[in-house]
Amino acid sequence: MKELSYSIQIHAPKEKVWNTMIDLESYKLWVKAFSPNSYFEGQWKQGETVKFIDKDVGGTKAILEIVEPYRHIFAKHIASINKDGSEDTQSEAAQKWIGATEAYHFVEENHVTKLSIDMHAHEDYEKMFNDAWPEALQALKELCEKQ
């Protein structure tokens, strides 16, 4: 697994950044950098599973091992999701994805929130993340700073 890190400064309180990031409608807007029709199913609560899906390409399923509102989220991916919605834990592609982790950190100082993402992912996904995360974070920043 490769260690990957991304961050952005957002001129908004951490509560607004958090809520904008996990609200279903705004999530669909900022996550387009990864896949144009992405959405999630599930609740952003500790111990819950969340599915990240684009029906045109499939998705992934993660368990939220740590959720500390407005501070920290730690997710571990446990399955891939096929286009038909079925879960895959056996294919070669799924095996490369299972075990990937994402840690989100929200730190506010003087009404500016630093959002940091630390990932462990298979090296085959490095280019995709390096291309998509900066664009996604910029879109999230714009959503948070709009009002």
SSE arrangement, N to C: EHHEEEEEHEEH
> Quick one: CATH class?
Alpha Beta
Helix content: 25-40%
Structural class: alpha+beta
**What general form does the structure show?**
globular
Specify the number of helices: 4
Give the uncertain stretches in residue-range form: none
Give the strand tally: 8
- What number of structural domains do the residues give? 1
| CATH fold-type name | Alpha-D-Glucose-1,6-Bisphosphate, Chain A, domain 4
> How many whole angstroms does the radius of gyration measure?
15 Å
Average of pLDDT: 95
Per CATH, the superfamily is START domain
Oligomer: single chain
The CATH architecture category equals 2-Layer Sandwich
What does this 3D model show about the protein?
With 147 residues, the protein is α+β, with helices and mostly antiparallel strands. The chain is built from four helices and eight strands, in the order E-H-H-E-E-E-E-E-H-E-E-H. The chain has helices spanning 14-22, 24-30, 92-97, 126-145, and strands spanning 2-10, 39-42, 49-54, 58-68, 72-81, 87-88, 101-109, 112-121. Strands 1, 2, 3, 4, 5, 6, 7 and 8 form an eight-stranded antiparallel beta sheet that branches. Strand 3 (49-54) and strand 4 form a beta hairpin. The chain starts with a strand and ends with a helix. The model has no long low-confidence stretch (mean pLDDT 95).
